[in-house]
């Protein structure tokens, strides 16, 4: 923030700032200032003498840690901007002054890495504190962190949905998302389509919300010779208030069925593992009840 972000306001360097970057500071840095402020409280350091207070620290700050979700959601925009102007003289000059071996993009990745490091540290602490005081709190803190990582990860996929007419923020909480083999069977429509549908599954990425289940098709696009970015083009949706579920499908314990309008449309869904299938079924059950 000091070596790069504030240098964008330095009158001596203004002429070096590429035009693509003009007025785009908050796209490049996201809510990094907010994360910086948050960590400036040094709460974790205060636990060095009393490690049993550490878990409480995480639990108390559960809501605040959502700032990472905001940061990660902005990350694709930030990366696209960096690809456009990362090799400009302005950034080279800042890096030279700081005497950094790594360029700015390596540091912009730090918050993303940090949010995943916390759960590893909490796991390590749990190993060291079997059945001692505060173990239950540590377990709760770990569960909280895993929850935050899951919601960051889910929201990263969610922002890549394209072609959905409505507003996904109105569908309630995103509970699960993932890729499946899907077969469909429609009562309407002639038999030929029906027979074809039996054999070849479609690859679909499913998003389960409190109010709706979205079926999307994953597309990977190469962004100007760089890493692939995935997007999910919307195919169809089912209102959760009108679906039913069959937990077991003959012949394959990884399959389950979701049906619509009294089995007028049936979707046979195959998960990659039995555990995954069971997790989805229990989440869907919760919504339906």
Automatic annotation (TrEMBL):
GO terms for biological process: intracellular signal transduction. Transmembrane segments: none annotated. GO terms for cellular component: cytoplasm. Keywords: Guanine-nucleotide releasing factor, Phosphoprotein. Residues 167-289 form the PH domain. Residues 1-155 form the DH domain. InterPro entries: DBL_dom_sf (IPR035899), DH_dom (IPR000219), GDS_CDC24_CS (IPR001331), PH-like_dom_sf (IPR011993), PH_domain (IPR001849), RhoGEF_Guanine_NuclExch_SF (IPR051336), SOS1_NGEF_PH (IPR055251). GO terms for molecular function: guanyl-nucleotide exchange factor activity. It comes from the Eukaryota. PANTHER family: GUANINE NUCLEOTIDE EXCHANGE FACTOR MCF2L2-RELATED, RHO GUANINE EXCHANGE FACTOR-RELATED. This is MCF2L factor. The lineage of its organism: Eukaryota, Metazoa, Chordata, Craniata, Vertebrata. The gene is Mcf2l_1.
């Amino acid at each position: 923030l000091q070596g790069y972000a504030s240098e964008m306001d330095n009158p001596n360097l203004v002429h070096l700032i590429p035009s693509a970057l003009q007025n785009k500071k908050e796209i490049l840095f996201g809510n990094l200032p907010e994360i910086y402020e948050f960590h400036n409280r040094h709460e974790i350091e205060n636990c060095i003498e009393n490690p049993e207070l550490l878990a409480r620290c995480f639990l108390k700050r559960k809501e605040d840690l959502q700032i990472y979700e905001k940061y990660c959601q902005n990350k694709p925009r930030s990366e696209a901007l960096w690809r456009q102007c990362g090799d400009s003289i302005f950034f080279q000059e800042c890096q030279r002054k700081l005497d950094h071996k790594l360029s700015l993009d390596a540091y912009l990745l730090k918050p993303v890495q940090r949010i995943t490091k916390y759960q590893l540290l909490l796991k390590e602490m749990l190993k060291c504190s079997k059945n001692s005081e505060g173990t239950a709190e540590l377990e709760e803190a770990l569960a909280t962190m895993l929850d935050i990582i899951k919601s960051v990860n889910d929201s990263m996929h969610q922002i890549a949905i394209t072609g959905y007419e409505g507003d996904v923020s109105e569908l309630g909480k995103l509970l699960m998302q993932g890729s499946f083999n899907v077969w469909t069977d429609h009562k309407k429509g002639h038999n030929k389509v029906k027979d074809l549908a039996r054999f070849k599954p479609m690859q679909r990425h499913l998003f389960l919300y409190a109010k709706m289940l979205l079926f999307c098709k994953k597309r990977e696009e190469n962004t100007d010779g760089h890493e692939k970015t995935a997007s999910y083009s919307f195919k169809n949706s089912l209102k959760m208030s009108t679906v039913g579920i069959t937990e077991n499908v003959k012949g394959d314990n990884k399959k389950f069925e979701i049906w619509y309008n009294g089995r007028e449309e049936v979707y046979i869904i195959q998960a990659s593992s039995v555990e995954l299938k069971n997790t989805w079924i229990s989440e869907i059950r919760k919504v339906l009840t």
